[in-house]
Write a structure and sequence with these properties.
alpha/beta, Rossmann fold, five-stranded parallel β-sheet, 6 helices, elongated
Length: 211
């Protein structure tokens, strides 16, 4: 007589696999949901920090560069930053406007375009410092902090988009500028959502990046 035990054990294994797979999928779904909730919360906190950053009086307003249009004019996003920096100067909130950016593939010097825009709005040239080697936020912070130390300035104001303010403030502090505020223009785009998510990674990297 042939025992049926092996067949029953095989049947149990076969019927158990769908249940195990279903349980795994549930755990995976819960894990992904928890991760999504964590990322969403972190993004909201980052946005709040940028939007609510104190914009007190400063010796130097550090204005971060951005895209220059093909006609050589600042892009709408960059123009909004510069207009916010102009308001800072016009209300005597800032003494010096430190404009920083790189040179793009087409040869446009972001810092020079930023300087010319502000001069066109009435800011005296001797109140503007143009840093054409600010290829990224870290480089801008390094150059701005060096300029401030050289001239005995202690207070900075990071002028950029709201989601970029926390990382810029962090970079300036890591380069020795302890008194840092933040200011952002009233300008938003749909791409800000992507930018917020990108900033989460960038802020974590800047926090650990060696000097």
């Amino acid at each position: 007589m042939v025992s049926r035990r092996p067949r029953r054990e095989t049947l149990r294994r076969r019927t158990g696999r769908p249940a195990e797979l279903k349980s795994f999928r549930r755990r995976l779904a819960r894990g992904l949901a928890a991760l999504a909730a964590f990322v969403a919360l972190a993004a909201l906190i980052l946005a709040a920090v940028g939007l609510l950053a104190p914009a007190g009086p400063a010796d130097v307003a550090v204005v971060l560069g951005n895209t220059v249009a093909p006609d050589g004019q600042p892009s709408p996003r960059l123009a909004a930053r510069l207009d916010r920096a102009y308001d800072c100067y016009a209300t005597a909130q800032c003494r010096i406007l430190f404009v920083s950016g790189g040179v793009d593939a087409a040869g446009a010097d972001e810092a020079a375009v930023m300087r010319d825009y502000l001069i066109g709005r009435g800011v005296p040239a001797d109140r503007i410092v143009a840093d054409s080697a600010g290829v990224d936020t870290w480089a801008t912070a390094r150059h701005a902090s060096a300029y401030m130390r050289e001239h005995g300035y202690a207070r900075a104001l990071a002028v950029t988009q709201y989601f970029h303010v926390p990382r810029t403030m962090l970079a300036l502090r890591r380069h020795g500028v302890m008194h840092v505020g933040g200011a952002h223009p009233a300008y938003a785009e749909p791409r800000d959502l992507y930018s917020l998510l990108r900033e989460l990674v960038a802020v974590a990297f800047y926090a650990a990046r060696p000097l």
